[in-house]
Amino acid sequence: MQVWTYTLIPALAVVLGAAVAVWRRPSPAFAGAIQHFAAGVVFAAAAGELLPDIKHRQSAWAVILGGAAGVLLMLLIKRFGENSKGTLGLVVMVAVDIFIDGLVVGIGFAAGAKQGLLLTVALTIEVLFLGLSLTGELSESIRQPAKVLAIVAGLAILLPVGAAIGIPVSHLPNFWIAAFFSFGLVALLYLVTEELLVEAHSAPEKPWVTSLFFVGFLLILLLDELAG
After folding, report:
1. Gap between the Cα atoms of 10 and 7, Å rounded
2. Which one of 32, 60, 105, 160 is most buried, counting C-beta atoms within 10 A?
3. What is the rounded distance in angstroms from the CA atom of residue 86 to the CA atom of residue 146?
4. Which DSSP helix (H) or strand (E) runs through 145?
5. Burial call 33-53: b when 16+ CB within 10 Å, e when fewer
6. Cβ-contact 28, 142 below 8 angstroms
7. Which of 153, 155, 169, 160 is nearest to 111 (CA)?
8. How far apart are CA 144 and CA 172, in angstroms?
């Protein structure tokens, strides 16, 4: 099975989330629960799968280069989101987010099969919520459910496209591999701290909702141990 085909799993998750939201928009409590769980899963995947490989490469300048590029790109995306208005701005923001998710999955497989699979699991849960939230936002301005689903499905294609670009990283010199891993790590940490958790805390939450962050975190650690 070719590596890029694994990205079809999160791509289908985006469409599934959209289909569920078209049928019934999730309550704020349910959305917060998914966000906490997804944040824990992504955080564990970033810390457990990419960080050890970065430390193993022992290339400080590569870490600085890749990390700085990741921070700069994330801040530019955030600024674009703050300045853009309307449906088009939202779609572009989500398109960039999905593409980077696919790129991170490809980079993960460059680190190894286990790393790639765990990152695929983590980002599948994340983009499932993304499909839910995007559909809810689009449905407010686009009253045709079929059109909303078509837009989300089109965006989902960017996952395998991003992965196809990230996979060849394994053939680059060690310096550039470490730089790309650092970029992927920063992108995932930004996703957790500035998107998932910020959105999760925007509504009143109960202790069981907060605890789902740690449930997701421990789930990835358990899968990591089972995978050997």
Report:
1. 6
2. 105
3. 19
4. helix 145-156
5. bbbbbbbbbbbbbbbbbbeeb
6. no
7. 169
8. 45
Question: pLDDT tens across 5-34, in order?
Answer: 788 888 888 888 888 888 877 777 887 888
29 close to 209: Cβ distance less than 8 angstroms? yes
The Cα–Cα gap between 193 and 184 comes to 14
Would the pTM count as exceeding 0.85? no
**Beta-carbon neighbour count of residue 189 at 10 Å?**
20
Instruction: Answer whether residue 85 shows pLDDT above 80.
Output: no
Which single residue is written with the structure tokens 């999955």?
105
CB atoms within 10 A of CB 173: 10
Number of CB atoms found within 10 A of residue 199's CB:
15
**Distance from C-alpha of 56 to C-alpha of 196, rounded to nearest angstrom:** 29
Can you tell me the mean pLDDT for 139-145?
78
Whole-number CA gyration radius for the chain: 17
Other CB atoms within 10 Å distance of the CB of residue 7: 29
